[in-house]
Amino acid sequence: MSFAPDLTETLARARSDLRMGVPVVLADAGGGALVMAAETLSEPRLAEVRALDLPVDLAITGRRAQTLKARAYDGDIARVILPPDATRAWVEAVADPADDLRSPMKGPLATRRGGDCGLHRLALTLTKSARILPAAIVVPLEDGAAFAAAHRLTLVDAAAAAPHLLRLSPLEHVVTARVPLRAAENARLHIFRPEDGSEEHYAIEIGRPDRDAPVLARLHSACFTGDLLGSLKCDCGPQLNAALNQMGQEGAGVLLYLNQEGRGIGLANKMRAYALQDQGFDTVEANHRLGFEDDERDFRLGAAMLEALGVTTVRLLTNNPAKIARMRDSGIEVTERVPLKVGETRFNHHYLLTKAQKSGHLL
Ligand SMILES: Nc1nc2c(ncn2[C@@H]2O[C@H](COP(=O)(O)OP(=O)(O)OP(=O)(O)O)[C@@H](O)[C@H]2O)c(=O)[nH]1
Ligand SMILES: [Zn+2]
């Protein structure tokens, strides 16, 4: 028995370090790399990096590279070569699209070609899972383990971490308690906690659904603005209420409240996307300009929660065919799609239309 953190725990630390602006070290057979999130990079740490006198890359996603017209030789990612005189503001301008229109990046960005980009890709996966901008400073190291020890930095074994991050983290069922709701007095709330230290997810069970018949179910992704504030920019709040009401009327159902704010990019990034929408970009373009895919959610999570509740066959309340496909991929049988058309306003009409035209949502 060792007190040392295992891989899952080390990755949780690495995510937290990146959010705090602390560098982490990724080690591989070639030595490794020093990694810092662009969003939380400080001027003094950038100066330290420069003092190392090593080649410095700014890893960005292929999506962000497209917006910046930078060549992404690695397909899904690009390795922008940091100019010797680059400041923190320059790094921010590459990473954050907020000022793309007001002060466009000058000159073509030089990007690296050839060589291994596995550590860059892992760095971006970590920044995404830390819910910050997907952009990271990456500096090659001859001996990553020694560098991490010398600077007391978190050391991640890259070869083990990359596949580990692709799997769904196991969920622990923490507790269940009764919570009478306006929509249904006989409701219970189940709390699930991922082993990887990420946010908890909730299941609201209405009545005692018969597990031998299809259960009325909804996978609802968290929307702080819509669910809590009554934002008119989306349809989430009315959808949440309508789903619970329907389950209350039928006397049974399961609503999963998944903490995948902003289709999995986090609230801060979603607000960045909203700011871009104010500049004229639609919901899909805004995600892309930030460097994200349209939808970064992992719906295996929902399937795992349903299974934990003993639910394997559902009537799914949704307008999103991708949710149905992902449930079926994960072994949940969807016998019926139950449409959920509520909450259209003059503020979200264009958003709903974009989801129908670009993301295949059913109108
Ligand atoms: N990135 C981003 N996320 C958004 C935006 N508007 C709403 N969201 C998020 O989108 C998600 C909406 O989730 P859902 O309503 O569960 O899913 P859906 O894909 O619309 O599918 P159905 O509602 O089931 O038809 C929530 O996580 C919201 O926070 C936006 O403009 N940008
Ligand atoms: Zn919403």
Automatic annotation (TrEMBL):
It comes from the Bacteria. SUPFAM superfamilies: RibA-like. GO terms for biological process: riboflavin biosynthetic process. Pfam families: GTP_cyclohydro2. Residues 173-339 form the GTP cyclohydrolase II domain. One of its GO terms (cellular component) is cytosol. Keywords: GTP-binding, Hydrolase, Metal-binding, Nucleotide-binding, Riboflavin biosynthesis, Zinc. Zn(2+) binds at C223, C234, C236. InterPro entries: GTP_cyclohydro_II, RibA, RibA-like_sf. Its cofactor is Zn(2+). GO terms for molecular function: GTP binding; GTP cyclohydrolase II activity; zinc ion binding. GTP binds at R218, L219, H220, S221, A222, Q239, E261, G262, R263, T283, T318, K323. It catalyses: GTP + 4 H2O = 2,5-diamino-6-hydroxy-4-(5-phosphoribosylamino)-pyrimidine + formate + 2 phosphate + 3 H(+). The active site is at D295, R297. Pathway: Cofactor biosynthesis; riboflavin biosynthesis; 5-amino-6-(D-ribitylamino)uracil from GTP: step 1/4. Binds 1 zinc ion per subunit. It is an enzyme of class 3 (hydrolase). Catalyzes the conversion of GTP to 2,5-diamino-6-ribosylamino-4(3H)-pyrimidinone 5'-phosphate (DARP), formate and pyrophosphate. This is GTP cyclohydrolase-2. It comes from Roseivivax isoporae LMG 25204.
